[in-house]
Structure formats: C-alpha cells, structure tokens
Amino acid sequence: MTSSKKADAAGESKAARNHARSSKRRRRISGLLALGFALIGVGAIYSAVAPEPQTANASQQDPALVRKGEQIYNNTCITCHGANLEGVKDRGPALIGIGEASVYFQTSTGRMPLAAQTAQAERKPPKLSPEEIDALIAFVESKGPGGPKLPDEHGEQLRGDNPARGGELFRMNCASCHNFTGRGGALSSGKFAPELDPATEEQLYAAMVSGPQNMPKFSDRQLSPEEKKDIIAYVKSVTDGNNNPGGAPLGGLGPQSEGLIAFIVGMAALIGVTLWIGAKQ
Amino acid sequence: MSEQDKKLPTDEQLAEMDRDQLVRLGGQLDDVELVEYDDPWPVKGTKAEKRAERAVAFWFALSGLAGLAFIVVFIAWPWRYAAANTSDHLLYLLYTPLLGITLGLSILGVGVGVVMYAKRFLPHEVAVQQRHEGRSTEVDRQTFVAHLADAGDKSTIARRSLIKRTALFGAGTFGLAAAVLPLGSMIKNPHAESANENGLWHTGWMAKNGERVFMRRDTGDPHAIELVKPEDLDAGAMETVFPFHAPVTKSGQVDYAALEAILTGKQRVDPEELSEALIRSDNPVMLIRLRPEDGKRVIKAQGQEDFNFGDYYAYTKICSHLGCPTSLFEQRSNRILCPCHQSQFDALHYAKPIFGPATRKLAQLPIQVDAETGYFYATADFNEAVGPAFWERKS
Fold first, then answer.
1. What is the ipTM of this complex?
2. Among A159, A243, B113, B359, which residue has the least CB neighbours within 10 Å?
C-alpha cells in the first residue's frame, strides 16, 4: 500500500506540482491585474475628486508672457508689493487676486509705478507700454486669478447709446466726488477725486469695476455693464470741452465762477459806457 | 426870490415873441440862465455833419439787422442737443452764443445810436440856475395849512362817525387779508405730524401698517423697481438706496406673490408714489459694504449692535450738520465726507464725526435680509431723527 501509495503519491505530486505551478502563475497574473485595476481606479477617483492645483490657471497662460510679466514686475513693482505680491507694510498693498481691470487702470494711467508715497497717486504719462501691461496682467493673474475683468469691447464701442440715463446714473453715483461734469473734487487729507477729461473709455470702465484707491467699487450687479457704458457715454459727452455751448466754460465749476466773471466784466463794461456817455465831445 | 421881482410880459408882448424868446423866458421864470447854447453844426450840410449822421444811422441800422437776425436764429436755428461726435454738434454749440450776440448787438446798437445822436446833434448847453431860499414865505405856509384844514373841515368827515368806522373796518380788513396771504403760509405746527412718517422724527423708511420696507436702487427710471441683494455689492462698495414698501397680506405678512408680480412688472404700483420715494429729502440711505479686513475693526454704537448685516452698514445720507448729502465715501480710509462744510464721519466707528462742524453721528438704519427673497429690508425706521438739529431735538 505504501508503494502504491508512493507511486500514487508520486503521480499525484507530479500532477499536483504541475497544477500548483499553473494555478500559482494564474494567481500571480490575476493579482497583478487586480493591482493594476485598483491603481487605475484610485488614479481615476483621485483625478476626479482631488482639488484643482492653484497653478492650473497659470498653465493656461502663455508661459513666455508670464515670464516677461514677472521680469517687468521684478523691475518696477517688487519694492512696494513684495516678491510674491504679498504687499509690503506701509508701502503697498497685496496684489493677489486684484484682477486685470485693476492692473490695467493703475498702470495705463501712469499712477503705477508710484513716483512718491503721497496722499494721492496722480495720473502721469504711463511708464509701461500696452504690451508690457498685458504681460504684467498675465503675471499678476498667474499668482492669483479672479478679480474684476476688463470688458471685451474697446474705445468707442464702450459708449452706450443712452447718455441721458448715463447722466442720471452719473449724478446719482459719481457726481458727489467727480462733479456733475467730471471736473473732480477734494476728498479728505489731501486726497482728491480726479477730473475725468483724460480718462479713456477702458480706464473709466476699469475704474468703476476695480475701485482704484478710495473710489468705491461698482459691481456688474450694482451697475450693469450697459449702465456703465451709458455712464461712459455721458462722461465722454461732457468732458474734454465737449459740453461748452457758451464758448468759455470758466472751469465748469458752476454758478460761482460764472457769477464772479459776469460781475467783474459787466461792471467794468458799465463803468466804461458811463464814462463815454458823460464825456465832453 | 419873490414873484414881484420877475417882469411878466403882457399879452401883446407874448404874442410877438418867437420860439427862442419863449424858451429863454421859460428859463428865466425858473431862475435858469442859459450861458451856452451852441448849435453843434452852425454851417449846415457840411461833410462832417453828413459823416456824423451816417455814423448814427449805422448804429440804428445795425440794431435793426441784429434784431432781425435774432428772430431768425430763435425760430430757425437747430437748437436741439447734438452729441459731441455728430456733425450737428457745432451748430448746436453756436445756438446760445448766437442768441446772445444778436440780441445784445440789437440793444447795444439802439443805445449807442441814441447816445451818439445826443452827443453829435443836440446843442451843447450850459445852464446856471439860482439857488432858492431854504423855506417858503410865512404867507405861503400859513395859507397852505389853512387850506388843508378847511378841506378836512368842509368834508364833514370828523362828525360822520358811521362812515369813519365803516371805512376803517373795510380798509383795515383788506389790509389784514393782504397780510394773511404771505404770512399765513409761514405758520405751521411742527408737531402736527410728529407721530407719522411725515414728521421730523420719522422718514420714508417707517412702516405705515406693519409692512416690510425693502431697499430699492435708483436706475435712472423713477418708475422702475429694482431691489438690492447682498451679492449686488462688491467689498468696498457704496450704493444709495431708497425705501420700497412691500404689499402685505390680510394677516399682516409680506405678500410675496404680489411682490413677485410687482417686480416682474405684472402688477402696477402708483407711479407717483414710486418717484416720490426717490425725491423725498430724508429717504436716501448709503448702503456700504466694508472690506472684510475693515469689517473686523468696526466699533458699534450702544443700542445699535445688531443694526448691520455682516459687513453691510446702512447710514443716512443726510448730514447731521445742515442736511447736505454726505455721499463722498472713501472705501479705503472708510470715511464719509460731506461736501458742503467738510464734515467727515468714520464708517468703522458708527459714523461718528471726526472732522468738521458736524457734532452728531449719522443715523444708522437697522437692516436684515429677507429669508424668502434674499432682498435687504429695514427692520425699523431710524432710531433718531436724521439731518440737522431742531428745537425739540435734545441731542
């Protein structure tokens, strides 16, 4: 029995060995497959669930443009706004997420880079060219996307077709600081609201959405883009000598200057006429 | 100088006198002596005289032509506003100056013509008049007084007391009536409406019968209704808002169906009431959304701790000094400025005055967001009177 058993066992063990080898191979393959599926599944779930990395937006921008913008930033802005746009205390605010409208307004009006730390950043000839401003916008956007956007239209396209409504809205929302014909006016502690003569349509729009310096922001839900364009149409119709029916606006400041000039000039003329009437031939 | 000193001509002498002599006689009777009375053009028809005549005529003609031009411009000129970039803009610009130039030239032409005529053609006259004594003679004075007294006496008014009294009554009442007209309009009881929304203590934000008063924005169309939601304002924004009284159901709740119908234009609201809400002087409220970093630094007034909604604060736009609109909001320094007398208020410090002549804080409107619609509404009227001080105001 033992021999037969042995023979059997030998036969069985050979078969079993053969069987064990093949099942082991099968198990190994299926294990590998399962691991592969599991890895793919986890990867798929991860890619679906995992949060978008902060740099996702930057990769959409032209990397060369962003690099050029970084170069410009390091040359002109870094002193006051910090290496990572985090701002420098008592010099300049953080710029993360301020939006393209803000960058465009500050640089295209020449307010930034700042000449000196004074109460008011004043308008001056822009230091950066339009291409450089685009690059700077790309760089600032790459550090923190979002913020107020510039409109798609340009120039005269931004003038709405209802300047009368624009005038109503201007007097309601803007005239308290900028005067009813955009002459500007004084604010507290040396600050002032600038006159609107030199501002382009894009700059007017960018100022409304971004609220530069102490100007309040006007979101698109507070003043719709159409209302903003009507306001721009009104501003353009009264500034830069466009609303000047009498020929001499006298500063456009209202009745005070006009009354003073009328009094002085009128009095002088009346005295002259009186002298002429009373003069001996 | 008395009458006896003057030699009056007899009727025969008078009939023989020519015009020159009559003129001189008239002067002499008034003690006026003509020292110099030269004709400026003693030789008639010279070239110089003709030239002077033409110069005067030129001014009158110019006046007439300018007057005609004014009439033509007034009637026919394209006076309607033309925008700056259109071709009619120049014509529009010229309208006002042309009216002024033509009418001014017309008046000036008449004036210059008259003055020039007087200077060139009227005789150069130098006259001397004697000065009279201070008072009339005693005879004149006494007879005059007697004459007045006699007239009064002969009219018998002194003893007709019925006529005297009725005349006094009639004339006096007429004078009183004439005085009542301008004076009566100045008399007004300041307390008559003090309990309702038209009184000095209340504004248009006061709910008249338990209705909810929502915040409405001015879109330039006085009859449009657009209510304000928190998400309408960016951080660092300011909006001027006006009250809108929502309809109520019979149980005193907000009638949301009716509100929805009004906002979508299906139901009409009295247009006069709508434009009145924008015009009323104590209605404008500044809805301010502070920047989040500033919102953490706010100091609230006692009793006004729950008046704000997050970073949203609503202050009256009426200055506590003399009632000017304090709508100059600086979003970074969080100051509210009044343009009239340079008062400044700190929006982070319950809008208390920090500069200028104002001595009281701006009144704060308690606000909340409607859970159903998401619109801002005022939970109550201001807890103090807005605007400048008045007699009954203690603070």
1. 0.72
2. B359
